[in-house]
Structure formats: C-alpha cells, structure tokens
C-alpha cells in the first residue's frame, strides 16, 4: 500500500470528477480529527496523510470505489465530520478518504412505524429538522448534534441526550446497509449489527441506516443542584427507583459550572448576544421530561430530593432553560485552555460518587466533567450507567501538555476501579478492544473482517489493530502512578491569555483562537463559503487548523490560501454556531486587513 500512481489518480478523476481532490491542503485537513496527541508521543502515529479525498453521491459509486481499492490495495478511510477524538478517521496508511458530505438525505420517514431511513452523511441536526416536518423527532442524539453524522455515530457508537430513556445508540438502530471490503452490499440487523456498530468502518462502509424515531412533543426542563458527588449518586439512584418517564438526564460538575461562568459570551456584530447566567458551583443535573408527564415527575423528584440524605435544590427555570439551550456547547470552556486533555469513560451508577470523589482526590488539575445517564446500561444486568466526558484545560503548545495528558489514563484507571471501562477504541485504544467491546465480540469482529475485507483495505489499524501509539498508551497505563505526579505538578492558569505579540504575523488574539477552536465542526455545514464549495479548507474549522499549521511553520501563504481567507462573505453565521463562541468573522476581517494592507496580497482575479 502506498501513494497513488498517475493511473490511479486518473481513475479517481474519471469516476468522481470535481468531487475528488488531491490538493495538498485538503489532504492535510482531511487527515485529522478533534483529538490532539502530545508532541512526545505524536510521532508514534506516523504521518497520517490522505492521498486523495472523494465525495461519493451514491452507494453504486462506493461499491465501484471499494472494488477498485481492493484490486489496487489502496486503503479507504471513511470520514463523517471527524468529531470523534480517537483517531478513527486518521488515514494512517494513506490512501483515499471518503467524505459523505454529498450523501446526506433523509430517505424515508415512516410515521406509523416510527422509523426513519437516513444516508450516512446527514448531520443529526439536519435529520431532526426533516423529522420535525413529519411531527417526529430523534429518540437520542449526541451532544455533537450540530455537526456529527448519522454514519459516524453508528460506526463510532455511543450515548447522548435522550439515552436515559432510549439507551445506547445501538438500541435505536434497526438496520444498516453496508458495502463490504469485497464490494458486496449487505443488510445488517439484530445481532448482525454488532459487526458494524463501533466497528469504525473496518468491516464495511455504511451507506444507509434505519433508526427508531418518536413523536415530537413539548418538553419540560428542570435543573437540580447538589453539592457532593456521593449525594449526587444517591439522588440519581433515588430517581431511578421511581421508574419515572424521564426522557433525558445529564449533569455537569462544579468545576464545569465555574468555568462556564468564566467563559466569554457569544458575540455578533461586536456585541454580546446572550445574557450571562451565573451558575451555582455545584453538580447541576438537567432533566428533560415530556410536558404531559411533567407534573407527576416533578412531584416525585421533589419527594426524592427531600429524603434528608442530600442537600439537593431545584434551580431556577432560567438556569434550567440556559443549560438545555446550551447543551451542545460543552466545548465552550476550551476557549480558556486553549487546549483540553480529554478523558471519556463509562461507569456504573453504583460507582459514580466514589469515582468522582477519587478523581478530585488524585488529580490536582481542574477536571471539568459532563455525565449522561443511561437507565438501562450495556452490562449483564442492564444496570444504570453513566458516560462521563472529562476535560482538563491545558496548552498543547507547551511542554507541560505532555505531562498533563497521562492524567486521562488516571481517570480511566479510576473508572475501572469502580467497575467502569474506557469509552471507545479508534486508533489510540485499539489494544483495549477486548475490554471495550468485550473479548468475544472483538474476536468475532476480527474473524468477520478477515472474511469481509480480505485485502485489508478498510480503515486499517483501527478498533482491533495493533498501532504503535496504542501499544505506547498501554505501556504508559502500566506506569500511570509514576507519571501522575508530573501531571499534577503542572501549574494551570485557566483563562484567555493572548501572546504578547503576533505569531508569524498572525494577530495575537487570532493566534489564541486558532488553538481554542475545538475542531467540533458546528460552523462547517452552515458556512456560506463552505456550502458553495464543499471542501474543508473553505470552512472556519479548516481555516483555524491551517493557521495552527502556518504558525508552527508547516504551511505558508499561497494564492489559494489568500483567496480562501479573503472570500468569506462576512455573513457571521459562524459566530452564532461556534461552540466556543469564537469571534470568527472579525478574526477573518483582521487577517483580511493584514493580508491586503500589510502584505499587499489580493485575490486573483480581484473581486
Ligand atoms: C462537542 C462534541 C460532543 C460530543 N458528544 C458526544 C456524545 O454526546 N455522545 C457520543 O457518543 N459522542 C460524542 N462526541 C463524539 C463524536 O461526536 C461522535 O462519536 C460522533 O458520532 C462522530 O460522528 P462523525 O460524523 O464526526 O464521525 P467521524 O468522527 O467522522 O467518524 C467516526 C468513526 O466512524 C467511521 N465512519 C464515519 N462514517 C462512516 C461510514 N459511513 N461508514 C463506516 N464508517 C464510518 C470513521 O472512520 C471513524 O472511525 C462528541 C464530540 C464532540 C466534538
Ligand atoms: S462569516 Fe465567513 S466564515 Fe463565517 S459563516 Fe459566513 S462565510 Fe463562513
Ligand atoms: S470555529 Fe467554533 S464551531 Fe467551528 S470548529 Fe472551531 S470551535 Fe467548532
């Protein structure tokens, strides 16, 4: 396997026309995800770089691509919106990245059966908008709803809002159509989905999926404050015992509340467009319940809050509405980092209090957390589980990032101590597949892949692979107690701190924002410039990433990039979409001033 020959590029050009690119900047932008590995271990990933990116429009095109790739031994890496952070979309062996941007329709809605059939590239927010036209809605969605794709979530697996009632996403999928590595098309349902769900494309390319949906009804939202982790567990267990018809339940920890209070507001045309709501620095649990059930649920919850065993209080409606309206902006605190070290785990509810307290005791860094409750977990007894997404603010540009990073292993070890497990495999945790997927399932998946993908072209190195980086993380895990004091010794000063002077000519504030961008992709789909062109370089997310590369000396201005920064339509939609409330459009305007007035650059031809 290796780089593409002229003949192979010709085949791609003939098959996909202008829906294919080998432009170097796009190849770079389609070769990473939201994760940022520390510099000391990053070389172990190698230099993932796509040789080409294609945007198929139909399953038939994918079948043709897969057959061609198998015959030519060319790796294929499927890519939704790259919002997962486990390296699953990294083309570690080069080859072709498949972008599903042009396969993004709701194909069918069956209101009576409460099902919908989706193409893989549809973003959840867009799918939901379509469903709402039929009076229906999603049963569950990830907090990356404004950017993550249907195919990406099925391939990656996970739980999101609504999981309290709907369970893991797996429980909401009826069937999936998949192109296997030998070019055959298969339909997977029931237990067969085990070979597709969480397989991250190593067994096949998802081209269609049918999911369960539900009628859209008005929701009542309430938020409850509780000062202590053990009391929080007690409270949530009490809620579970009542067996109430709650749709969604999630919480944030006191540290997250404090940093949300500190985060700058969203700006539009130079003015803040949101009211500052001061959150109490406590565990805040936010609950969504159908309005028809709300009176009964509120009464029962109040009983459980007043058992004398915990000091829970009902917070104001203003806080509840604010928390719900901002549920997709969990990365808002990244602006204060400007980087975040992520740690994602699943713990049984019965171990939640001890796990959260242990993290506070063992980790001296500020750990912000969000937890999503699942009433019926994926464990032998179906006991309630909590998915915990933790972040430690840090700065990837500093040496200290290398020391803070292993604290994510500390969090994973603590979770395991209380019966938990890491969240996903991808590239980085592929050696932990038996623990994450279950030993038997990992074994069967390996066997299935050998049959379904005999040439080994589908997303090589992922999920059940043997990547160097994954081996290194396993080794680091063994030394975790020795590494921990170094991470704890780092002094972390959370908050926006612009550099003293421009970085390679990039204004100091813009330089900070480039790193504060979480790469979540919320700005991509709605950006005027991106929508008309369809390539990542034309989106705010792509531009921020390019600026990092430029500031680190790996890129330089050329006419294409000058045009890219100058042709923004100044619509400012991105400012309103940004999960970190970055002043995007005004940053481009600053760069426009610099490029034109200071550097004497123009678009060619001038506009
Ligand atoms: C702000 C934020 C919030 C998040 N919240 C949640 C959450 O609440 N719950 C949760 O589970 N996750 C969450 N995530 C993680 C991530 O958003 C999800 O895993 C999401 O489903 C990934 O979708 P994607 O389109 O970005 O897929 P990608 O990241 O592009 O791909 C994920 C994996 O699937 C493979 N793949 C993509 N498309 C296909 C296809 N058509 N066929 C086969 N394989 C394919 C890719 O190769 C990759 O291995 C969050 C991430 C962010 C940034
Ligand atoms: S202001 Fe520019 S970058 Fe932002 S959404 Fe509009 S076109 Fe895109
Ligand atoms: S600019 Fe904002 S919305 Fe876009 S990827 Fe970055 S953080 Fe996300």
Could you walk me through the main structural features you see in this protein, from its secondary elements to its overall organization?
The model has no long low-confidence stretch (mean pLDDT 95). This protein is of the alpha+beta class and 607 residues long. The radius of gyration is 23 Å and the shape is globular. The two termini are 43 Å apart. It folds into four domains: 6-98, Uridine Diphospho-n-acetylenolpyruvylglucosamine Reductase, domain 2 (2-Layer Sandwich); 106-215, Uridine Diphospho-n-acetylenolpyruvylglucosamine Reductase, domain 3; 219-422, 3-Layer(aba) Sandwich (Vanillyl-alcohol Oxidase, Chain A, domain 3), CATH 3.40.462.10; 508-598, Fumarate Reductase Iron-sulfur Protein, Chain B, domain 2 (Orthogonal Bundle). Strand 5 (106-110) and strand 6 (115-118) form a beta hairpin. Helix 7 runs antiparallel to helix 11 (352-362), helix 11 runs antiparallel to helix 13 and helix 18 crosses helix 20 (540-551). The protein is built from 23 helices and 20 strands. An eight-stranded antiparallel beta sheet has the order 16-11-15-12-18-19-17-20, with helices on both faces. Strands 5, 6, 7, 8, 9 and 10 form a six-stranded antiparallel beta sheet that branches. It has a four-stranded mixed beta sheet with strand order 1-2-4-3, with helices on one face. The structure holds flavin-adenine dinucleotide and iron/sulfur cluster (2 copies).
């Amino acid at each position: 396997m290796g780089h593409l020959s002229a003949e192979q590029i010709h085949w791609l050009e003939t098959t996909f026309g202008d829906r294919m690119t080998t432009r170097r900047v796009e190849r770079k932008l389609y070769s990473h995800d939201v994760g940022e590995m520390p510099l000391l271990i990053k070389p172990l990933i190698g230099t993932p770089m796509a040789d080409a990116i294609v945007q198929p429009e139909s399953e038939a095109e994918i079948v043709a691509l897969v057959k061609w790739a198998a015959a030519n031994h060319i790796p294929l890496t499927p890519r939704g919106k790259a919002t997962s952070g486990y390296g699953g979309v990294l083309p570690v062996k080069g080859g072709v990245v498949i972008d599903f941007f042009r396969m993004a329709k709701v194909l069918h809605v069956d209101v009576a059966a409460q099902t919908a059939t989706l193409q893989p590239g549809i973003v959840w927010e867009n799918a939901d908008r379509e469903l709402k036209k039929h009076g229906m809605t999603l049963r569950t969605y990830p907090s990356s709803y404004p950017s993550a794709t249907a195919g990406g979530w099925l391939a990656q697996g996970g739980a999101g809002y609504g999981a309290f009632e709907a369970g893991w996403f797996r429980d909401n999928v009826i069937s999936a159509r998949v192109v296997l590595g030998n070019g055959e098309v298969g339909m997977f349902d029931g237990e067969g989905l085990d070979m597709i769900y969480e397989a991250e494309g190593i067994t096949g390319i998802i081209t269609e999926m049918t999911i369960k949906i539900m009628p859209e009804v008005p929701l009542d939202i309430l938020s409850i404050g509780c000062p202590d982790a053990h009391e929080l567990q007690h409270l949530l267990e009490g809620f579970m015992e009542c067996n109430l018809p709650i749709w969604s339940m999630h919480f944030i920890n006191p540290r997250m509340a404090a940093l949300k209070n500190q985060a700058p507001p969203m700006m539009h045309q130079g003015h803040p467009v949101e009211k500052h709501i001061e959150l109490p620095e406590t565990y805040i649990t936010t609950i969504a319940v159908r309005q028809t059930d709300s009176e009964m649920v509120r009464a029962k919850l109040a009983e459980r809050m007043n058992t004398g065993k915990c000091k829970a209080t009902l917070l104001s409606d203003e806080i509840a509405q604010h928390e719900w309206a901002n549920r997709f902006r969990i990365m808002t605190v990244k602006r204060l980092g400007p980087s975040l070290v992520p740690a994602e785990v699943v713990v049984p509810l019965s171990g939640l209090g001890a796990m959260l307290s242990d993290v506070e005791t063992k980790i001296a860094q500020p750990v912000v957390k969000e937890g999503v409750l699942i009433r019926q977990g994926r464990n032998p007894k179906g006991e309630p589980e909590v998915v915990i997404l933790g972040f430690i603010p840090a700065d990837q540009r500093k040496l200290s990032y290398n020391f803070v990073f292993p604290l994510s292993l500390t969090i994973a070890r603590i979770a395991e101590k209380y019966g938990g497990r890491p969240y996903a495999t991808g590239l980085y945790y592929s050696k932990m597949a038996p623990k994450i997927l279950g030993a038997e399932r990992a074994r069967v998946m390996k066997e299935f892949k050998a049959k379904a993908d005999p040439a080994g072209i589908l997303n090589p190195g992922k999920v059940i692979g043997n990547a160097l980086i994954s081996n290194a993380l396993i080794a680091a895990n063994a030394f975790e107690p020795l590494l921990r004091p170094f991470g704890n010794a780092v002094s972390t000063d959370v908050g926006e701190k612009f550099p003293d002077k421009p970085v390679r000519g990039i204004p100091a504030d813009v330089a900070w924002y480039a790193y504060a961008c979480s790469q979540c992709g919320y700005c991509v789909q709605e950006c005027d410039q991106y929508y008309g062109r369809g390539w990542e370089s034309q989106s705010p997310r792509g531009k921020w990433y390019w600026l990092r590369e430029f500031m680190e000396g790996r890129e330089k201005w050329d006419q294409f990039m000058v045009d890219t920064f100058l042709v923004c339509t100044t619509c400012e939609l991105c400012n309103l979409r940004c999960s970190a409330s970055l002043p995007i459009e005004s940053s481009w305007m600053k760069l426009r001033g610099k490029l034109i007035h200071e550097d004497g650059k123009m678009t060619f031809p001038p506009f």
